[in-house]
Amino acid sequence: xxxxxAAMIAKAAIAVGTNKKVWTGIASVIAALCLPFILIIVxxxxxxxxxxxHNRSAVRLAxxxxxxxxxxxxxxxxxxxxxxxxxxELDTVLxxxxxxxxxxxxxxxxxxxxxxxxxxxxxxxxxxxxxxxxFAECFVNYEERTKTIENPDGSESEETYxxxxxxxxxxxxxxxxxxxxxxxxxxxxQSNAVNVWYLAKYNTTAPQExxxxxxxxxxxxxxxxxxxxxxxxxxGGKVVELAMSRLGHPYSQTYRGKGNYTDCSYLTMWCYRHxxxxxxxxxxxxxxxxxxxxxxxxxxxxQPGDLVFWSHKPxxxxxxxxHVGIYAGNGMVVDASYSKGKVxxxxxxxxxxxxxxxxxx
Length: 361
Description:
Blueprint: H1 3-16, H2 20-33, H3 37-48, H4 54-63, H5 74-98, H6 108-119, H7 129-137, E1 140-150, E2 156-166, H8 170-181, H9 187-202, H10 234-244, H11 264-274, H12 283-292, E3 307-310, E4 323-329, E5 332-337, E6 342-347, E7 354-358
Antiparallel strand pairs: 1-2, 3-4, 3-7, 4-5, 5-6
Helix pairs in contact: 1-3, 2-3, 3-4, 5-6, 5-7, 6-9, 10-11
């Protein structure tokens, strides 16, 4: 980032920094949404002008048009204009693809969100029509099918035709973009794309922690972790008791810590805090803490109270960790489940998505 740019961000932030609620909004945009640099600037400018719905308004400028704030630098206005032009090109190609589609149509918000993650604010040469065609076709598979038709003489015959089938699995999608379009998205770009998709289509933020990411069913994780032979203690049993005391409490990332609301990482942090041990507040940072403080163990050494970490999708965070739970013994875990909507005691699930085990005791 250029010094002048960094200074502009700092100046905008300082201008509204006295308002704690507003500053929290800035932090959530930068740290949680991880949107591209230009979107962060748009958000800050919107906050400074008093916009309460700053992040959603910024996405609408690119996806739906509208009046761009007059105080925005010319370069940024040009970026938004280029993106809107590109979206028009994509709509033309997608219209042709829709004519070949049977069943679910291609999700245009998703196509544009991925394109946005790749190109918004980036220096690039102007794309050709063939580039838009190749990009859009990454979101479908072409299949040859047959149908029976009745001939004028009353006889029947088989006719072969080609249909476009929308790709809904995100892992398959990004693999196709890499092979067919020739561009591999980083985990951060993939995370940005999903965040923009949620904001543009659903007017909400994408879940960053949870155990329900069906669109990423093919996601596999890898990486080497050093394991340590750590002693167990009575703290583990206390942590499990605390976790069990919260069974049935409702899941919410937005309201975690208010009343009985919790999410996966708040539950683990709360249990350990009440057992006299402090750990970070998100699943990924708890995982990082385990690794950096030599508190990692092998799966076969799990004891009650140990932490189990999952990666259900790439999210740009440490080891792409998306979920954490407390091992309760006998192959069971207590966790605040996004898919169940509450704190549950269940089998230690998704063994192929478990990436880390820790003992903060």
